Amino acid sequence: MKTWTILLGLFLSLLVGDWIPAPPAHPESRRVIVISIDGARPDALLMAKTPTITRLWKQGASSFRAQTIFPSTTLPAHTSMLTGLSPDRHGVRHNNWWPGHPTVTAETIFSLAKSHGLRTAMLVSKEKLGFLARPGSLDHFEVLPHRAPVVVHRAVTYLGSEKPYLLLIHFTDADLIGHRHGWMSPEYLVALQTIDEAVEGLLATLEETGLVRETLLIITADHGGHDFTHGTMLSEDMIIPWIAFGPGVREGYEIPDQVVIYDTASTVLSFLGIPIPAHWEGRPLQSIFR
């Protein structure tokens, strides 16, 4: 009788549309790719020729008013993105790192995913992001100080052969051009267009291999920028895009709540069915899922 009661309850939940899928029993049934577009302003993504990213936010969930942390610089922001913590908690405020120096002490999404037996990888365009390659947390870490087409070619090759369950791809084009020619300059918008073309190549690979059916794709940024710099509390530096596309994600959904960069980490773990550390400040963005 108890079994039939449970089954009836599940049937009625499905019937009225209130069914919320439980975390997967086996994290291996899902994978996540986080794309970090260094220095991407959300208003710039709307101005530039970015048909692929536009398709993803229209067919997925998004916020174009998400917030990064202060200082709005690469290393502190990426640390928050991947640890679920603010700088007050993870303690990272410096923006430089060199090989051989100590790495992050806080748990990252990679160390936690690895502890659950998942294959993990980071393909980044700045050597300083090696700070986040905590020993034992990654199956593969590679620095590719190149533009987006080269980075995505390597990412597609690695994805096809190794099929990691958690992958970070980092593009630096927009940040480099922003420092050189200025944020919102014609050159900066072209850099975003180049990144969009790279994302198109990645998406095509996911579709061709069938991995798109099990992959949550998150596209975000570490910070924005103004004039030729960033790092301040100006809205141009602090507001970032946050886009999710994948299985179970609502279509054309504008996230009503405030999204903070460290919510990315919790959302990743939640999707993979991995417990979120109780002390994390980031929260999983459950509303993005049907």
**Helix-residue proportion:** 25-40%
Task: Please tally the β strands and state the result.
Answer: 8
The CATH topology corresponds to Alkaline Phosphatase, subunit A
Calculate the mean pLDDT score and round it.
Answer: 92
Widest beta sheet: strand line-up: 4-3-5-1-6-7-2-8
Uncertain stretches of 5 or more adjacent residues: 1-27
Strand and helix order:
HEHHEHHHEEHEHHEHEEH
Number of helices: 11
Straight-line N-to-C gap: 30 Å
The CATH class turns out to be Alpha Beta
Describe the main β-sheet briefly.
Answer: 8 strands, mixed
Q: Hey, roughly how much beta strand do the residues contain? A: 15-25%
User: What is the second-level CATH architecture?
Assistant: 3-Layer(aba) Sandwich
Q: From the alpha-carbon coordinates, what is the Rg to the nearest angstrom?
A: 19 Å
- Choose one word for the global shape: globular
CATH homologous superfamily - what is it? Alkaline Phosphatase, subunit A
Question: Which structural class best describes the helix and strand composition?
Answer: alpha/beta
Structural domains: how many: 1
